[in-house]
Write a structure and sequence with these properties.
It is built from one helix and twelve strands. It is mostly beta strands. A twelve-stranded antiparallel beta sheet has the order 8-7-6-5-4-3-2-1-12-11-10-9, covered by helices on one side. A hairpin with a 4-residue loop joins strand 3 and strand 4. The chain starts with a strand and ends with a helix.
Amino acid sequence: MKLLIKQRVFSWTDSYDVYDESGNIRYFVKAELLALGHQLHVYDHNKNEIGVIHQKILTFLPAFEIEIGGRKKGLIQKQFSFLNPKYEINYNGWRVEGNFLGWDYDVYNGCSRIIHISKEILSWGDTYVIDYANPADELDGLLLVIAIDAANCNND
């Protein structure tokens, strides 16, 4: 199964529409700029908030906390590296490997790859593809990808 995350090109803040394989809107993401950092709110297609990604302040490198349904689920923190971005991920017991800068990476639960993330080339605005096998990983995978994108963009 796949989700397509399309960044809204003409938007004042980071906003994304998330589609399923059939082109139906599943989620949308809207950023809120705060005095100290920012938050990304994730809504289902009925406009119900289902998740929030909070930027942690007073950290040397970007860090984002993921909350789903009002419960804190984990933390994504960028680590110091010279060439390729690296992250410390404390989220569902998952680990992430691959090329974050090129948007081609995999998420593992134990030894099993459960999600593959890639970037579509030649699309209007940024478009990312989340490929997953288990429907139970859909929302957690989406919030992980958005948190990593926020950490990548935070330094730009």
